[in-house]
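W.,

You were right to be curious about this one. When I first looked at the sequence I had no strong expectations either way, so I just let the prediction run and decided to look at it fresh. Below is the sequence, 507 residues in total, followed by the output.
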Amino acid sequence: MKKIFLITVVFLNLLSLSSCDNELELDNPNTLTTTQYWATESDAQAGINSVYAMFYKDGLWARWIYFRLDLTSDEGYSQSPWVELADWTRFNYINYNFWEGNNVTWRDTYKAIFRCNQVIANVPKIAFQNEDNKKKILAEAKFLRALHYYYAAILWENIPIVLEPSSPNDRPEQKNITEVWAQIETDLNDAYTDLPTEWAGDQTGRPDKGAAKGMLAKVYMQQHKWTEAKTALEYLISGAGAKYSLVANYRDNFTDVNENNSESVFEIQFGDQRKGGTDEGPSAAVSSNRAQFFAPRSIGWSDGQARMWLVDAFKKEKNKDGGLDIRLKYTLFYPDLLADFGDKTYNKTWQWGAEAWFRKGSRDYYRDNEDYYSQVNYRLIRYADILLRYAEVLNETGNTADAYQYVDLVRARVNLGTLAAAHPEIGNDKAKFLEQLKMERVLELAGESVRWEDLKRWGDLDNQVAVDKIALRDPDFKNFVVGKNQRLPIPQVEVDNNPNLSQHPEY
């Protein structure tokens, strides 16, 4: 069961307006104030549902965040005729206020955080028949606030932390990345305490304890807190939360078939039944635009595509039957797709030259083109990622020999031999294991918005030698400036309007 968060709630926008100074000091009878609104359990539920509605906004998981996480990495790029849009995947940041590349994601991130803060500040005073339901709502809000701060930290690093409902006159102070991580950890640990181990079927899509531990593992790993990450991951793999498993059909992770399955730790719920744009109206869309923007030319807008080196990576190792890694078939559209697997591309024979495109999240399995309103859920955290992360953590903590089995679970699903048999040269060498694990993560997770955080965590953006190596497979990295481009510039309008906020000095 899926897609419960399809009612976009508009009241929090109205609340944000009510805090503005009004020279006439007149009450608007059509606008609720915070003191009028937060009174009942249904108010609280609508409030938390409005936070989920932020996933459907342009700056976040409806559209533009994929350009930052997928196309800026070495997995993707843009040849869009919209030059400024393409330039932002090439590290050519001239206008720091470029809306689609920067400002809209900043805006929607902090709008989501504002809604979380409204819930956290106001729900405690509401009387509930069952106090556990109140705790769950507050836990959801803290989880979602942490999630949005996590991606803000991945993109901009040193950012303001806002923990109370804000007003137009607020000038929040900028915090360094260490402080941001600490706040995210606090929120996730608090959320874990009161989130359920699982939700009833009609509540599918809300985070549970496993989702909190999955996010905690990501946060710890970005800080190289390997011991803490190990503990978080063990909850999902061998501890009280070990309810996950890999689905037999790899592609079930990227279509609207078999969503919210045993492999899903947390996924964003999308639907295509409402097509009213991305504003706050009652018919506002609850869909993803990713497929439209990443589809081949004549199929969609075609503003983002995949690097061809990915195709070569998939073909380096054959499966146990001597065939190709089946994940290639479901990860990419590429020139030899028909020859290799008998698959057409949206019912077309290949017509795009030596190019590749992302297939995950596409709807070619039942239609010949794309539009703005894709109902395919986005699997933000899935169990295969958890297993590979655990292997990485074991390797980092001196347990390389134990790490193999978790990589092998992922490989076995697609009929690949064991890692030790395929790459005996690794042995117990920590550095060699990590290098191969980097490839294992590409083969399993390409196009799933994890590559940018991976590159940052591995330190591959921290020195010129590593960046030059990336540039061999992604020429856009010839523009990458070490010490600068691992983070986005803060929107200049935010810096200009807030004396407590400084632009990153490299910009």
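Here's what jumped out at me. The radius of gyration is 23 Å. And, maybe more interesting for your project: DSSP finds 21 helices and eight strands in the chain.

Coffee later to discuss?

I.
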